[in-house]
Structure formats: C-alpha cells, structure tokens
Design brief:
single chain; 177 residues; alpha+beta; eleven-stranded mixed beta sheet; two-stranded antiparallel ribbon; 20% helix; 36% strand; globular
Length: 177
C-alpha cells in the first residue's frame, strides 16, 4: 500500500529504519570524578565502571579520517536499558576536547544499534562525509557519523550485536568513587 498525502498525491514509501535501538548517551565533562559523584549523589545513577583510552589500547583511532593518538577517561553506568557514558578528555585536541572548548559540558553523541553498519558508513563516505571519530574497540568497529548538522547530535554506530560496545577495549580503572 502506498502512502498518500492529504491532497491525494502519492508519497514514496518510507525507508526501512536505519536504527533499531538507542543504546548509549555520551556526555562530555570537565571532571569525571566530580561528575560521577554528582550523578550518584543527586540522582542515584551508578555504579560506574571506569576506563582509560590511550594510544596503547586504541591504536587504530581516526578523527576525520586521519590517524591520531588521543587519551581520555570515561565512566559508564546503565540507566534502564541505556548506557550513560561520561567522557573526560585528557588532551587538548581530541573531538571531546574540542566539543568541551566550543560548547561546554553536555551531550556529545547518542549511540544507536544498526544492522547496517558498513552501509551507513559507506553512504556517508559516498557523500564525502568521513566519520568524526572511528576505530576498533574490543573487536567492534565504532564510528561517529557526522550528523550534528542534520540531526543536532552526532550518532555513534558500531558493528556487531547491540550490547557489544558495552565492553570497551580500554584499561579498566579501579573505581575510586
């Protein structure tokens, strides 16, 4: 059955949904430890799992298609079925550091599950758009699609099952909460 507009004109069929689930909200912060405490004390969000990403454990990291060496700390906690990720940049040049300098603390990206990781990345590449950040973590390919201008926020997509990104390939840090 074709869709029809209110004036009777035929509309083209809606495309198949590109995303099947929202799995993560990524929030850039200035001070990871203070922010974790605030979330836990004020809203009961936690427990938090801490990770550190460095050039040693994220060796194939790319920003805007170029290889880079960056460092950041992050903490993750589940709120229902959605992972909340707090990210503190440890350098002044990463996508997270630039976001913090330009916009301050706040939502940086939303991660969504897709059955079409390669096709989505290829479709953006076909329009001359390379991922803002990409790499392989724990055997899972990750890409931040440059959707901030069209959707108002970056979308993170990944290869593999919906929960795959919940185990980052990074050094686990002891929880010093």
């Amino acid at each position: 059955m074709e869709d029809v507009s209110p004036d009777g004109a035929r509309l083209r069929p809606a495309p198949e949904p590109a995303f099947t689930d929202t799995v993560q909200i990524g929030i850039v912060v200035r001070d990871l430890d203070a922010t974790r405490r605030r979330y836990a004390d004020a809203y009961g969000i936690g427990p938090w799992e801490l990770h550190a990403f460095t050039p040693a454990n994220a060796p194939d990291l790319h920003e805007d298609g170029r290889p880079v060496a960056r460092s950041w700390r992050l903490a993750t906690a589940m709120v229902g079925r959605v992972m909340w990720e707090l990210i503190e940049p440890l350098d002044g040049e990463s996508v997270y550091a630039r976001f913090l300098a330009e916009k301050g603390e706040g939502v940086h990206h939303i991660a969504v599950a897709t059955p079409h990781f390669d096709a989505l990345v290829a479709a953006h590449a076909g329009r001359g758009e390379v991922p803002v950040l990409s790499g392989t973590f724990g055997g899972v390919q990750v890409a931040y699609l440059p959707t901030d201008r069209t959707l108002g926020v970056l979308l993170e997509v990944f290869s593999g099952p919906a929960g795959a990104e919940r185990t980052p390939n990074a050094d686990r840090m002891p929880d010093a909460a």
